[in-house]
Predict the structure of mannose-1-phosphate guanylyltransferase.
Amino acid sequence: MTKVIPIILCGGTGSRLWPASRESYPKQFLPLAGDRTMLQATALRVADPARFDAPIVVTNAEHRFIVAEQLAQIGSRATIALEPARRDSGAALGAAVRLAALRDPEAAVLALASDHVVLDEPGFLEALARGLPAAEAGRIVAFGIEPTEPTSKYGYIRPGAPLEGAFGVSAVAAFVEKPAREVAERLIAEGCLWNSGNFLTRAQTLLDELERLAPGIAGPAVAAADGARQDLDFLRLDPDSFALAEAKSIDFAVMEKTPLMAVTPGAFGWSDVGSWSALWEIASRDADGNALIGPTAAIGSTNCYVRSDKHLTAVVGVDDVVVVATQDAVLVTTRERTDEVKAMVAALTARGEPTATSASLVHRPWGSYQILDDGARFQVKRITVKPKRRLSLQSHVHRAEHWIVVRGTAKVTIGDETRLLRENESVYVPLGVTHRLENPGVIPLELIEVQSGSYLGEDDIIRVDDDYRRG
């Protein structure tokens, strides 16, 4: 079997599964359907070295360290390509496919979303093997999912005539965009399949079709890949070239126009997890149909999805509801209306609500911090620094800081002095003084930081030296 280069698209705004998912930390980075995050599960699905070459993961610069950390945790040696701007899936895939072709001119590529669930991985690999001969023969092979219900949440593919020499693969007769339920019922009766949005093809096939059908995407995307430069462990696509790309999805740019589309059916437990209701459908449920995740409880309730990160969350006497409680926000809706969560996030964003897009727990390449309390002239954070990591050497114009170590050992630089702080020890960092925090140990360092001053924003940082090359 020819080795395939997986291309994993790792973008998105994270609004459909708010408040667990936010723009700053979207759903692919969360363990929503198992012990692994959705990105990790996707990467592991294509990790067999006998079948797959190292993947190419496309993400934005803001999420680059999260992607690198999560892939490192599972031992994935991926190429992480950074989008300079949002140009939809057409440009992202165009640049990634060009990178694959530069690696191997004869490469077959498998385009995958990082935030989909596949419950039957052997079934997925079987569909891949079935579609590969057609892909190598010059087709673009979509994975059509055998429908389990007549839903309007997905687009549909109408299979056409079977392809010669490619058992189980058919030409695509038509695409149908998210039909009304009564239309979906008819489509299923006629043998139509859900469009998973994932596909398999030769790299050069897709590049040729992009050039023919969407030159406004192809030229800039290829130039961005050709002009990419290495930055630490990342590959930055050329920003000037990428900015010229037309913003359009790969479906509209190529899939719905090319005569090369083919489809192979699959029944491998696929879901795009586009709503909390979709997560309820694939979750383990109790005898009353309730999916209870985290510190939760339910009495006299049926068919509910209740999830909590920390606080005990209980429901009594309700049916078909969704309750999601995080550190800083709570969502309550019915399972029938979870598709409206995206509209709620848009409304919250429009009125300037910060929790619409950002969580109280903020991830950084060195660890994370969480805001515990704040006021007019103070802010209290819990800071966690990973072993052998350190923050930038920095100073502040408007604030002073107190650090109190609660776990581990901190190496602290303040001005010209460097010292070690152990549990229950503290230090004061005066306003304007250059300082750095480092974890020299082998366990996470945890401390409480109390900031005081006239302005406490994250942009009040003057970096003198930074391991991660941030401005």
